Amino acid sequence: MLVQHRFERISIQTPRHRIVGVATLASDGYRSRLSDLLNAPDRDFIPLTDATVTELDGDREVTQHEFVAVHRQHVVFAVPLGEVAAPASGRDHLTV
Predict the structure, then answer these.
(1) How confident is the model at residue 89 (pLDDT cuts 50, 70, 90)?
(2) Between the chain's N and C termini, which has fewer beta carbons within 10 Å?
(3) How is the chain classified by DSSP, letter by letter?
(4) What angle do CA 3, 53, 26 make, to 5 degrees?
(5) Domains annotated on the chain, with CATH
(6) pTM as predicted
(7) pLDDT tens, 19-72?
(8) 27: phi then psi, degrees, rounded to nearest 5
């Protein structure tokens, strides 16, 4: 069975960082919402691709990463920023 995916840009804030990246979600049903990703009992980390990490204290350094994994316990809040097109590269994105 082929699972259809969609790609959502999300913003996650931890006590020390703001992380904006792309999450791979199911196109509908279970695991199709950001809240499903945040509350999944079988996953401790939230995988994001094409991520920008901004430090909230100090000099507010910004770094770019192809991939980051954010531990759910560090999430202070998260918001969806909108659906994005499927990645143009031939790489498979992470499935949640």
Answers:
(1) low
(2) N
(3) -PPPEEEEEEEEE-SSEEEEEEEEEESSSTT-SHHHHHH-TT-SEEEEEEEEEEESSTT--EEEEEEEEEEGGG-SEEEEEEEEPPPSSSSPPPP-
(4) 10
(5) 5-84 (2.30.30.100)
(6) 0.82
(7) 999 998 888 777 778 888 888 888 899 999 999 999 998 777 899 999 999 999
(8) -70, -25
